[in-house]
Amino acid sequence: MTALKYDKGKARMDLLDPYAVEQLSHVLAFGAQKYAAHNWRMGISKGRLIAAALRHLFAYLGGRDKDDETGLSHVAHAMCCCMFLLGLEHRTDLDDRYREDHETPTRKTD
Description:
This protein is an all-alpha fold and 110 residues long. It is built from 3 helices and no strands. It has a domain of 54 residues. The longest helix is centred in the first third of the chain and has 17 residues.
């Protein structure tokens, strides 16, 4: 006989990779030291976060495993940017992404 546990539909936290989460936490600790703990929660534009994530991914794609400033994985830095994006997803005031369905600004001509 085993105990009942109702967890259907709950997040499968056991599927997270401990090493990946640990590396992410190292990036967060560096950021907390450099800026402040939870500094990102004050808001960063989504465009800046996307650009930073892509810089880290392209650096990794180009064969550079570690960020020059931190010595930490570029992939962990990209994960951090993505975590911030998800954490700030509800902040529509930070959404500066280009959207094709919006009117594009007209170019000034002199």
